[in-house]
Amino acid sequence: MNSLPSVAIVGRQNVGKSTLLNRLTGKRTAITEDLPGTTRDRLHVPMNHAGRDFILVDTGGMENLPQEAIARSVNDQVRAAMKEAAVIVFLVDAQSGLAPLDHEIADEIRRAGKPVVVAVNKADNPRLALHGAEFHALGFGEPMPISAYHGRGVEDLLDRIFELLPEPEAAVVEKPGLRIAIAGRANVGKSSLLNALTGEERTIVSPIPGTTRDSIDTAIDTPQGSVVLIDTAGIRRRGRVEPGVEEYSVIRSLNAIDRADIVLVVLDAIEPATSQDTHIAGYARDQGRGLILVVNKIDLLENKDMTEFDRNMAARFKFIPYAQRLYLSARTGDGIDRVIPAAFDIQAQRSHRIPTPELNSLVRQALAKHSPPSAGGKLLKVLYATQVGVCPPEIVFFVNDPKLVHFSFQRFLENRLREVFGFSGTPIKFTFKSRGE
Fold first, then answer.
1. What number is the average pLDDT over the span 20-36?
2. Residue 232 marked ligand-binding
3. Any binding-site annotation on 312?
4. Looking at the chain, which terminus has fewer C-beta neighbours within 10 angstroms, N or C?
5. For the residues 142-170, what does the mean pLDDT come to?
6. For residue 90, what pLDDT band results from cuts at 50, 70 and 90?
7. Is position 172 annotated in a ligand binding site?
8. Is 255 known to sit in a ligand binding site?
9. 307-336 as b/e, with b when 16 or more CB fall inside 10 Å?
10. Per-residue pLDDT at 217
11. How are beta strands 290-296 and 378-379 bridged, if at all?
């Protein structure tokens, strides 16, 4: 993804940048709300038009002399997007007209020195489309009236972008990267961890909970291989989620876990693990994702002895004893170098396939040491076992009566499998079927 040209959509707040991105991609990728400042970080979305692949980049609305730290960070994110872009779409508002801030943003765009298309949004009818003439004053040539909401003029805009894109380089077939979602409660340091892993300020970091709203995909190359990091919004308990922007953010965070291979559940070292932490980890387990419990902010601990914290973790996360634990500080970088190798190791465990003879040999040995359960004088018999899937590993046991399988017996089999074959950091899915199924 990094090798593709990018097209940055920039402009002041509430001119419809996210609505345009959703219209161009044909799906609700970015959160849209009739509130200034809804988008904050850069959102990268792959696109194809007329056979050309490129990356669309949604950005936050720029402000003039912002006073708040988040607003200043948004401006920095927009400048970074313009610096990386092959083409800039300067989005303005036909309904509110040419504003002084539009001239200031135009100066920023000129400094970037990239090809520019001025798109006059909210030109929902011919009368409003005529208002686009005043945007000639920005000095970027003929403005293009569009309506992102209704789709008017959007195809013409795509054609214009296509004309300005650089000639494609020779195609390079790349394997999709390992997808790692960074999930957790608000303000545990997820965006700081993303920035530490990438080595640059890809997302805005702030002590204010809820700073990240979209799920942000960032592709990086590592010594272990290609990785796509997915930063997510902080997940709160369902009853505490506010409708609107925060509700959409939580939905995107859960969707990010759904499309990840590995989930980093980020915890705060200065707070005991909470029920919300276990809820997030439980969701990742139920989706069959690899799991790493990442304890962040260890630099803030006065006592570096993690014995008590480990006991709390073991008690809170006893339902996923296989999950790996990493202690680190995203702020200082301590322990950061262990995250990506651990994720690749877990992915290898998730992809491991046990040969059927070895699996059945292990089952026979286990049954010789542990009598299978019985009920009403009927004894459970395991006739045959085979692994039918990976990522996560899935094993089917053919038995005389699946109703005789007790959860304690299933746990016994799982423990034996992990002792012999590992499967560290990944759930294992068991299915029990009768002979005829």
1. 64
2. yes
3. no
4. C
5. 89
6. very high
7. no
8. no
9. eebeeebeebbeebebbbbbbbbbbeeebb
10. 78
11. unpaired
In this predicted structure, the answer to whether residue 39 has a pLDDT above a threshold of 80 is no
Widest CA span in the chain = 89
On the question of pLDDT at 1 being above 50, the answer is: no
Q: Is 125 annotated as a binding residue?
A: no
Name the more confident of 216 and 361: 361
Q: Is 161 assigned a ligand-binding role in the annotation? A: no
Annotated ligand binding at 27? The verdict is no
pLDDT confidence of residue 132: 84
- To 5 degrees, how large is the angle CA 160–CA 161–CA 167? 110
The residues that bridge with 379 in the sheet, in sequence order, are 374
Is there a binding annotation on residue 298?
yes
Q: CA angle, 272 as apex, 283 and 279 as ends, to 5°? A: 10
- Nearest CA among 125, 129, 92, 84 for reference residue 13: 92
- Compute the distance between CA of residue 180 and CA of residue 197 in angstroms, rounded to an integer: 11
Tokens, residue 33 = 């709300």
Specify the pLDDT at position 341.
97
Nearest Cα to Cα of residue 263 among 289, 226, 238, 232: 289
Q: Is 226 annotated as a binding residue?
A: no
Task: List domains and CATH numbers for the chain.
Answer: 6-164 (3.40.50.300), 178-350 (3.40.50.300), 356-434 (3.30.300.20)
Residue 76 makes CB contacts below 8 A (sequence gap 6+) with 201
- String of DSSP letters for 279-329: HHHHHHHHTT-EEEEEEE-GGG-S----HHHHHHHHHHTTT-TT-EEEE--
Look at residue 313 and tell me whether its pLDDT is greater than 90: no
Task: Kindly tell me if the per-residue pLDDT of 36 is higher than 50.
Answer: no
User: 54 has which bridge partners?
Assistant: 47
pLDDT above 50 for 122: yes
Write down the residue that tokens 């276990």 correspond to.
278
Please, what is the average pLDDT of the chain? 83
Examine residue 392 and say whether the peptide bond preceding it is cis (omega within 30 degrees of 0).
yes
15 is in an annotated binding site: yes
pLDDT at residue 239 above 70? no
Tokens of 11: 């402009």
